[in-house]
From TrEMBL, chain A:
One GO process term, biological-process aspect: error-prone translesion synthesis
Residue stretches spanning the membrane: none
Gene3D superfamilies assigned: 3.30.70.270, 3.40.1170.60, 5' to 3' exonuclease, C-terminal subdomain (1.10.150.20), DNA polymerase, Y-family, little finger domain (3.30.1490.100)
Pfam families named among the record's database cross-references: DUF4113, IMS, IMS_C
GO cellular component terms, A-Z: cytosol
GO molecular function, one term: damaged DNA binding
SUPFAM superfamilies registered for this protein in UniProt: DNA/RNA polymerases, Lesion bypass DNA polymerase (Y-family), little finger domain
Protein name, UniProt field: Y-family DNA polymerase
Domain UmuC: 2-187
Family of this protein: Belongs to the DNA polymerase type-Y family.
Sorted UniProt keywords: DNA damage, DNA repair, SOS mutagenesis, SOS response
Automatic annotation (TrEMBL), chain B:
Domain of life, per lineage: Bacteria
Residues covered by the Peptidase S24/S26A/S26B/S26C domain: 23-99
Gene3D superfamilies (alphabetical): Umud Fragment, subunit A
Stored InterPro entries: LexA/Signal_pep-like_sf, Peptidase_S24_S26A/B/C
A Pfam match: Peptidase_S24
Region listing for Disordered, in residue ranges: 9-32
Name of the protein in its database record: Peptidase S24
């Protein structure tokens, strides 16, 4: 049996662990640079007139009027809390697929029938006791059904956040309950189309002939169909394959006209993604840089462009990547605009042990050792302690605004939770 | 499956590690006696996934030997038994109490047990 454990409104819950005064009250978390709402707890979602994904400046007054507490995103805290949850899951099963920051699948093996409910309760209670985070647990024979069980555990109060689909009766009830657009993996387009031919629930879907599903919805549809029948068609991904692309694109704290500052920000992001690249022992063969103005503004002239360059040889060297990125940036930069965002993407990622040298290029295996030393120093002494000179000292000029970020309670001595007595 | 982990976790012991001498001249006679240095986390923390550090600000807890600016090591997985020092929530605020003989009162929510106080000697 497979369990899907996911944290209820994870970002907001992380904040509430350290702010008990906010329990039972609406809380939202804003995206990088406080652009829009990216997470809301149950109480905030109940205030239906607060639109998610709307630029924050348009709705800030509404939040204040409704007594909604908002936080800038504190990914350092969320990542650390997430790791705690994953560690706890490993006490229950050696096979854990970390699906996202707040969702994991566990293979519970074939325990005795009556124990799944107890196991789900135990998962829920242990995670809450140890971390303060509330979770929902769905347990079923396949990943797609576990996802469905998890949804039921939250939507139907009788389950109280633990739902086990074990018998054929449980399964049919779940399929009948689940509308076709809520089936994991079926996109809006397919769902619309299915509804037009009279498929409204997951149960209707499983009654379609497999040949039709395979023809119209490819192998992906077929897997969902099989998994809904209770047949395992996907396996847990314990060791995620190397990412095909690593990228970052963050808005500046303010609009920038000066190419020097944009170059600094760009170099900083390159050094961040290069570090990820090295951590997964791979090299990138393609670099993509994008530059955009603020499309929300109707006062400013708009310009955006991006450039993709193929590196002579794949590399993981921060300094090579920064120098290439800077050249690329200069090629697309046009003076006179107020820029909002620079994006860096590494593509064509190849594991180091598959590298092929270029016959005409100097291919030294030692080239990345300076970058590796940087990584070690930065792990030991804190992020961006050392780096390329291009990073400069003017980070304040372009750094993200995180005005309302909560303290990094679990990773910084200076930001510990403080109790006044 | 029932997993109960309220007490200490037992860690894999990381004691003896044989190695090759790093010295270029006469090899170190200590090579086969190396052990990892003392690690406070290992000694003070039973369940690291449930442990949080909290700073105290103020002078009113000297009866518990907790002074201004001390750091508490708080383990959420230790059950709230009587006489234990604990962090609790009352009316949405954190408080530090000694859990009374009768156990927790209804107006309080247990947050975690204080297992150590880090106090700077002055």
């Amino acid at each position: 049996m497979i369990a899907l454990v996911d944290c209820n409104s994870f970002y907001a819950s992380c904040e509430q662990v350290f702010r008990p005064d906010l329990i039972g009250r609406p809380v939202v978390v804003l995206s990088n640079n406080d652009g829009c709402i990216i997470a809301a707890n149950k109480e905030a979602k109940a205030l239906a007139h607060i639109p998610m994904y709307e630029p924050i400046f348009k709705i800030k007054q509404q939040l204040v009027d409704n007594d909604v507490t908002f936080f800038s995103s504190n990914y350092t805290l969320y990542a650390e809390m997430s790791q705690r949850v994953v560690n706890i899951l490993h006490r229950f099963s050696p096979t854990v697929e970390v699906y996202s920051i707040d969702e994991s699948f566990l293979d519970l093996g074939a325990s005795r029938v009556q124990t799944y409910q107890a196991c789900g309760q135990d998962l829920k209670q242990t995670i809450f006791r140890d971390t303060g985070l509330p979770v929902g647990v769905g347990i079923a024979p396949t990943r797609v059904l576990a996802k469905l069980a998890n949804k039921m555990s939250k939507k139907l109060p009788e389950f109280d956040h633990v739902c086990v689909l074990q018998t054929e009766k449980d399964r049919l009830r779940a399929l009948r309950w689940c509308s076709i657009n809520d089936v994991w993996g079926i996109g809006k387009r397919h769902a619309d189309r299915l509804r037009r031919i009279g498929v409204h629930t997951a149960l209707d879907f499983t009654r379609l002939p497999l040949a039709w599903v395979r023809k119209e919805m490819t192998v992906v549809g077929e897997r969902i169909w099989r998994e809904l029948q209770g047949e395992r068609a996907t396996e847990l991904i314990i060791d995620p394959r190397i990412k095909k692309g690593i990228g970052t694109a963050k808005s500046f704290g303010k609009k920038l006209k000066d190419i020097g500052l944009i170059e600094e920000a760009c170099a900083y992001y390159v050094s961040e993604v290069a570090e990820v690249l090295r951590s997964q022992h791979s090299c990138a063969s393609t670099l993509q840089i994008s530059l955009t103005t603020n499309y929300h503004s109707n006062k400013d002239a708009q310009y955006s462009n991006s450039i993709t360059i193929t590196l002579k040889i794949p590399t993981d060297d921060t300094f090579v990547l920064i120098s290439e990125a800077t050249k690329a940036l200069r090629a697309i930069f046009k003076p006179g605009y107020r820029y909002k965002k620079v994006g860096v993407n590494l593509l064509g990622i190849i594991p180091n042990d598959h590298l092929q040298g270029n016959l005409f290029e100097d291919f030294s295996m030692n080239s990345g050792s300076l970058s590796k030393t940087l990584d070690q120093l930065n792990v030991k002494y804190g992020k961006a302690t050392v780096g390329s000179g291009t990073l400069g000292r003017r980070k304040k000029e372009w750094e993200l605004i995180k005005e309302d970020r909560s303290p990094r309670y679990t990773t910084q001595w200076k930001e510990l939770l403080t109790i006044k007595v | 499956m029932k997993i109960d982990l309220k007490g200490r976790l037992t860690h894999k012991s990381e004691r003896h590690s044989a190695g090759v001498s790093q010295q270029s001249g006469f090899p170190s006679p200590a090579t086969h006696y190396r052990e990892p240095s003392i690690n406070l986390h290992q000694e003070l923390i039973g369940n690291s996934d449930a442990t949080f550090f909290i700073r105290v600000c103020g002078h009113s807890l000297s009866e518990f030997n907790i002074m201004d600016n001390d750091v508490l090591i708080v383990d959420r997985s230790v059950p709230p038994t009587s006489n234990l020092l604990a962090v609790v929530i009352r009316d949405g605020n954190f408080e530090i109490i000694r859990i009374p003989k009768e156990g927790m009162t209804e107006s309080m929510i247990f947050w975690g047990a204080i297992i150590y106080t880090i106090h700077r000697a002055r």
